[in-house]
Amino acid sequence: MSGAARHKEANSCNSLYGKDLLDIRDLDKDQIKFLMRRADTMLGALNSSKRLDPLKNMILGKLFFEESTRTRQSFEIAIQKLGGGYTGFNSDKETSVMKGESLADTIKVMSLMYADVLVLRHPDEGAGREAATHSDVPVINAGDGVGQHPTQALLDLFTLRMEKGRMKDLNIAIVGDLANGRTVHSLAYALALFNNNMTFIAPPELQLPRRIISDLKNNYSISTQKTSSIEAALDVDVIYMTRIQRERFKKPEDYARFASSYTIDEDFMSKAREGTIVMHPGPRLTEISPKIDSLPGSVYFRQASYGVPVRMAILKSLLVK
Ligand code: CP
Prior knowledge:
Blueprint: H1 3-9, H2 29-48, E1 59-64, H3 70-81, E2 85-89, H4 103-112, E3 117-122, H5 127-133, E4 139-144, H6 150-164, E5 171-175, H7 182-193, E6 197-201, H8 210-220, E7 225-227, E8 238-241, H9 252-258, H10 266-271, E9 277-279, H11 300-305, H12 307-319
Parallel strand pairs: 1-2, 1-3, 3-4, 5-6, 5-8, 6-7, 8-9
The structure holds phosphoric acid mono(formamide)ester.
The site of phosphoric acid mono(formamide)ester has 11 residues, from helix 3.
């Protein structure tokens, strides 16, 4: 059995050690706070150019069946900043999946080849959970179709702490394609855990799935607001914009109908509450005008950069006792 395999089986005082991270609901409040504190330390080390090597000789296996800029690069940077390395693929086009190999076999091969952790992005909801059943080493879901994107939710919480000074008791408007956006499916649960007030702004056809809204109410005692009017984002602490997810529409004409649903620009921000920050998981299309990029509250590029310390914190926690 490889060292990596032993990680998954061992008991540990670090409650994240050896675990998979597939869904933000896998984490409780204390585990999230632990990761936030670790991310603070990682950010401090990055800013001081201090060399860290707790993951020396460890290998991250990246399995990206779908495109990515931020998530993939930040995992690659995070493992190297911790003294480890990576292997894997950026597209299934370069793998034996093209010859018909199954996800299960691909995962088995990677986990038995001494990778210490697998990071999977896949177009199918539930692929991360399926992968975990075939892996001897921890699996991180880096986005599964319209399902979940838990590491994005963690970096979003970290962004709130950095930019608003807290990740609780905030008024947050979440805007865009909430039916298909996996980042918001994870974020909504993370925000609920810390008692934030959420307003979901979307065309009725692209609203947050009813099962998530009911879950927030029944299991988190959080009542939320729903509207299609962007005006509801004028009086909040945080505007979390998302793009309309072109790749999830079956017909181009359906995408075209919603593509320009919302844009926030200088005029909109001039009417917004003072101190409001604007976040976006990326990639940004037309929903945020580049003309507001230089406003102090436009934090979406810094938000992407926080992916590195947060993913360093996650990797260290899953891989070191
Ligand atoms: N936020 C996010 O998942 O971005 P990428 O698709 O670029 O990884």
